[in-house]
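Hey,

The postdoc asked me to send both predictions to you directly instead of through the lab channel. I've kept everything plain text so nothing gets mangled by the mail client. Protein one:
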Amino acid sequence: MDDLFENFGRIQKNDPEFHEIFKNFAYGEVFEYSVLDEKESVLVTLASLIACQSPKAFKKILLSAVNKYVTPEEVKELLYQSVPYVGFGRAHNFFGVVIKVFEKKGIGMPLENRSNTSAENRHQKGRELQDRYFGAEMIQMMNDNAPEDQKHFNRFLEGFCFGDFYTRDGLDDQQRELITFVFIATLGGCENQLRGHTQGNLAVGNDKEKLISSITVILPYIGFPRSLNALAIINEICE
C-alpha cells in the first residue's frame, strides 16, 4: 500500500532520506504486523489524521485512497463519525478537505442521505445501540448515577452521538467502533473512554488482535507514547 504515500512528492524531492525511512516503515514494515484489510487500514489512518489535526497529510492520502480502497460514502461516514469524538472544531477543516478532493476526483455532491432516524426516534434508536455495545445494565447505571444537573450529557450521548451517527448506513458496526477507538487513542488523555470503547469493540466483534493492529497502523502518525498507552488499555481490558 505504498501508493498511499505517492502524493508526498515534495518531501521526496527535498528530503529523500526521510521519505525513504518513513515510507519503508509506515507503508511496509507496519503492515507486516497487522491483520487489518486494506479498507480498514485506510479508514483507521484517515481517522487518526483527523484526530491529530493533520489536514495536509489527510488530503494526500485521501487523494490516493478514494475510489480505490474506500468509497466516497465511507469517507463521508468517517467524517460524520469523527464529530462526536474530536468535536466539530477539529473536524471542520476536514469537511473542506473532503469537498476539495471530491471535486478534484469528479465525485458528485451532495452524496446520498444515509440517516436512519427521525427527530422522534433518535433517542430510542441511540439507546438501543448503547445497550447493544455496552450492556443495558451499565448504561442504565450510568444514567441513574449522573447528578441531576449533568444528566443532559447522557441524553446528548444517546441522541446525538449514537442516535444521529451510529445508526447511519455507510459503515458497519465493526468499522464505526474501530475508527472510534482510533479517534480516542489518537487524542490521548481519554483513557476512561478508551477503556469503554475497547469493550465496545469486543462487543461488536473486533477482537484484541484487530485492536492491536489498528494501533500498529497508526503508530507512525501518533508516535510511541500514545500507542503504548493504548496498548496498555487493550491488555488491561482484554484480560
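Protein two:
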Amino acid sequence: MKRYLSLDVLRGMTVAFMCIVNNPGTWGKIYPPLAHAGWEGCTPTDLVYPFFLFCAGCAMAFSFSKFNGLDGSAVRKIIRRGILIFVVGLLCNLYPFFPTAPDPELSFWQNWVEWIQGKRVFGVLQRIGMSYMIAGIIAMWLRKPGKILGAIAVLSIVYTGILLIFGSEPGPFTLEGNISGKIDVAVAGDAHVYHGYTNALGERVAFDPEGLLGSLMGACTALLGFLAGSLILNAGRKSQADPSDIHNSTLGVVSRIFVYGVLSLAFAEILSIWIPISKPLWSVSYVFLTAGWALVVLGVLAYFIDYRGVTKPFTMFKIMGTNALTAFVMSAVIAKTMSMLLHTGPAKFFGGFFTQTQFTSLLWALIFMLIIFCIQYILYRKKIIIKL
C-alpha cells in the first residue's frame, strides 16, 4: 500500500508555517505576507488552517482503509478521535488553567469562576475535531469518490442556503448579518466566543470563526483531502497489480492531482462572483480555493519527491510532519507560558529587539519555529509518535 512521502512533507510544511504565522515577535508589527486577510480575501497565511484539515483528510484515506464500511468499530474510532481532538483544543484554550492576573480583593475560587466564565469554547483544534467526525462518517459511509463529491455538493448547498435564508442586513455573508455567529452565541454564550472582529463603527462583534455551522464546510475540506489520499492509495494498488498501467503510475497520479488542483482553483474563482472568499465564514469558494492550492502544492511536491526522488531538501519538513498535533499543542503551550512568565512574550528578550521592526518580528517567528523543530527532531530520533 503506497503512501507518498510528499503527504508527510506537506503536513510538515503546514506545521512549520503555522509556527511562524502564530508567533510573531509582536502582533503590532507583523511581516505583511504573514498577516491574515480581513473578512474577505485570502493570503498565504489563510492557507495554513485548511491545509491542516486537508492533510487530516488525506491521512483518513489510509487509516480507514482497514475498515470495511461504516461499522460500529469505525464509528467509535471516528467519534472518539474527534472528541479527543476537541478536548485537547479546549484544554489549549484553558491553559494555564488559572487566572494569571487575579483580583487581589477576590478569593482564589472567585477569581477562577470569573476567569472561566470568559474563556472561549471553540478554536482551531475544536473545528478540526468536529469536521473530522462529520467527514469521517461520510467518507466511511459513502466510500466511492463520486458519492463523496455529491456529499460535498450537498453540504455546500445546505451551508450556503442556511446563510442566505437566515442572514440579515447588511448581507448574509457579512460580519453583522451572517447567521453562523448568532448560532454560536446562542449555543455557547456571548462570553465564550471570539470577539476579535470589529464592525464599521469599530465595535467588537461576537463572532467565532471556528464555530459550529462552519464545521460543515470544514468537513468538505477534509473530504477533498480524503479524495486526494484515496486517489494515491487506489492508484498504488492498481499499479502493483498492473505495473504497465501508466494512468496509475506515479507520474500519472501526480499529473491528476495537479490538474484537479487547477480545476478547483478555477471553480473557486467562478464561485467567488456570487459567494465571497471568506476564511471567517469558511465559505464554499474558500473551501475550493484552499483545497485547490493544497492539491497544486501536493502535486508539485509529489513530482519532485515521489517521482524524481528528491528527498534530502525536504527532510526537515518530513520531521516536522511526524507529530503535527503535538507540534500544534507545544507551540500554543510554549507561547502562552512565555507570555505568562514575561508578561509581554518575547518583548523582554534582548531589550525588546524582536518587537522593533517587521523583520525582527519575523526573525522571532523563525526562531520559534526552529525551537519546535528541535523538539520534533528529538521525538523523531527516539521514534516517538504521539497519536490520539
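Summary for protein two, as requested: The longest strand covers residues 197-198.

Thanks,
C.
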